[in-house]
Amino acid sequence: xxxxxxxxxxxxxxxxxxxxxxxxxxxxxxxxxxxxxxxxxxxxxxxxxxxxxxxxxxxxxxxxxxxxxxxxxxxxxxxxxxxxxxxxxxxxxxxxxxxxxxxxxxxxxxxxxxxxxxxxxxxxxxxxxxxxxxxxxxxxxxxxxxxxxxxxxxxxxxxxxxxxxxxxxxxxxxxxxxxxxxxxxxxxxxxxxxxxxxxxxxxxxxxxxxxxxxxxxxxxxxxxxxxxxxxxxxxxxxxxxxxxxxxxxxxxxxxxxxxxxxxxxxxxxxxxxxxxxxxxxxxxxxxxxxxxxxxxxxxxxxxxxxxxxxxxxxxxxxxxxxxxxxxxxxxxxxxxxxxxxxxxxxxxxxxxxxxxxxxxxxxxxxxxxxxxxxxxxxxxxxxxxxxxxxxxxxxxxxxxxxxxxxxxxxxxxxxxxxxxxxxxxxxxxxxxxxxxxxxxxxxxxxxxxxxxxxxxxxxxxxxxxxxxxxxxxxxxxxxxxxxxxxxxxxxxxxxxxxxxxxxxxxxxxxxxxxxxxxxxxxxxxxxxxxxxxxxxxxxxxxxxxxxxxxxxxxxxxxxxxxxxxxxxxxxxxxxxxxxxxxxxxxxxxxxxxxxx
Amino acid sequence: xxxxxxxxxxxxxxxxxxxxxxxxxxxxxxxxxxxxxxxxxxxxxxxxxxxxxxxxxxxxxxxxxxxxxxxxxxxxxxxxxxxxxxxxxxxxxxxxxxxxxxxxxxxxxxxxxxxxxxxxxxxxxxxxxxxxxxxxxxxxxxxxxxxxxxxxxxxxxxxxxxxxxxxxxxxxxxxxxxxxxxxxxxxxxxxxxxxx
Lengths: 596, 196
What we know:
The structure holds two protein chains of two kinds.
Chain A: H1 5-9, E1 42-44, H2 54-58, E2 64-68, E3 81-86, H3 95-98, E4 105-108, E5 122-123, E6 136-139, H4 158-161, H5 174-183, H6 200-208, H7 212-219, H8 226-232, H9 252-261, H10 266-273, E7 284-288, H11 292-303, E8 307-311, H12 320-323, H13 332-344, E9 348-350, H14 361-367, E10 370-373, E11 379-380, E12 393-395, H15 396-404, E13 414-418, H16 422-433, E14 437-441, H17 453-461, E15 465-467, E16 470-477, E17 483-494, E18 503-515, E19 518-521, E20 525-526, H18 534-539, E21 542-543, E22 546-547, E23 560-562, H19 573-595
Parallel strand pairs in A: 7-8, 7-10, 8-9, 10-23, 12-19, 13-14, 13-19, 14-15
Antiparallel strand pairs in A: 1-4, 2-3, 3-5, 4-6, 11-20, 16-17, 17-18, 21-22
Helix pairs in contact in A: 5-6, 5-9, 6-7, 6-9, 8-9, 10-13, 11-19, 15-16, 16-17
Chain B: H1 2-19, E1 24-29, E2 32-37, H2 42-51, E3 57-66, E4 71-80, E5 85-94, E6 99-101, H3 110-121, E7 124-126, H4 151-158, H5 171-179, H6 185-188
Parallel strand pairs in B: 2-5, 6-7
Antiparallel strand pairs in B: 1-2, 3-4, 4-5
């Protein structure tokens, strides 16, 4: 009988498994993690969350509340509230996660929870379970129910634009506007950044529901120049839209433009807005400067029964929105329509009346109980380089004003614009339309430019050359004192040790000469207070060229109110409108209190 | 390999189109064909698909509420093991008079799907005698899967709110407080969030 060796050895084969990890429960005991698709408690990234409350609104079980969190510090663009979930009601459908615009909310795999205390089922995600971050299961990513892409705005092609002053932006049609408006979540966080706090979610919702007239009525509640803002607003509201964290913000400006453009003339505005005008109360207010701030103040004062007189130095109302903004951004007929409406409800404007020249400030003071100054910044800063007074060296706002008056200005075929703000871009784009080759010299980088990025892009599309980090040194003139060329130096950016924005520093020897026919300076403006009598100027508190005002836009002289560029640093139309709007409350308080 | 598969779908789609001229046939993607039909053609189509095109498996039967058009869309999802292709047979019926014919004679499990749709959408399937109570107990009022059913209202009416939730705030209202914004009365009804 042969020895069956295999039969003896094979059981020992099992020994080779001795060193391997057993497939049984581990010791010491380790809690097993749930599978990735399990849904349990919510987790909320408190820093990412902006408290828009969409989760609370969408919840079909009414399980989510928005509550104030103690010690939570929030900046603008945040409601200051955070969600709290009643897990006794939650069904883990994750609609809240799928509709979270910032993506801060998610579900974790913590689905096992036992407690005898029913109140412990009320959980503030992210605060009560900060470690939930590592156990997320259902997160909001590609499965989001929201629409992050905005409806693109149709525009004229760059090469087509430079042929005329036709409006560049074509505006939404009805279908586009309804679709865009339907994206809005209605949280209203955007209104925090609007200086006048327009009722944005309400009018967007009116557009989404197909009620354009109501949208216009809501817009006119605190902004009588809605169409202007719809075209040229700096739209800080869009910067903090709930969608900005992960997608494109709602086109708030274009929707306002759409709604206000559906109204064809001033009579229709009056029919739609149907303002309640109080009977005359016998008080009288003077407004100096028919800019957006002055017109706003005049409109709401007239509605409250005040006798309002606006003194305007020029032949047309609108201030900077008339003379500073080129017509391809804000056509004249659109502005006329808005101003005619203001006049139709009782705003009186005295044109060609410069205070200090045609009428004295003291005379105005004698006839009116309160005065609002909204004169804006009209005097341009000088470049401070040699050759600046040569013929062919002009200032951007003077240039834009004359062009808007349809006057002819000879600029030749090579223009250089100095500056990086909206005025500089406007001057450059206007010069392109007059047929010149345009270069912008800006001392800092393109990303430091204070101008709107859309404006910068628009200028580039139209063939404007932007030369950043270039500092002008001298304007070279010919024997007739006419501009021939400009000498500039390239600069490097030096980081600011104090943490401010980097400063440009000239690179020695890196100097260039650019042959030009016209130099347009656009490095800022300041106010001209020369019309004010000396005693008033002494009493008035002026800080760095701006009049100091309180919340009611009241200056250190009780009967004198101020707004717009001379009082705020925003340097835009909506900032001036907000000043005008708030000054009305202040003026009303001041005059009617005196009455009692 | 992929091109071969697309050929199968094209073949099936052409065959369906040739038999049902009014059908709207789309190849949605690989192995998925959508067939939109007039509602009276659904029984003959399903019978034809099952017996001639080997789609002998009813994978699912569901419904979509198109409240804006006042219609229900019935979706039969059928599958052929032989061809490895899914067909979505869709048809629209009137929402007011929600009635259709049963397909129980083709697939017995259709009876249970129809029972569910009867309960959740309120659709009556003629020929199905087992449309009795299914999941919901003693349900009164409109069927819950209809879009005009207000789920939040149902939840708040029927389940009390736990004590300790009284400090809840409205986001829009909170923002207006931060802003000192005054929303006029006529605009308030356009607030998406409730303004208490």
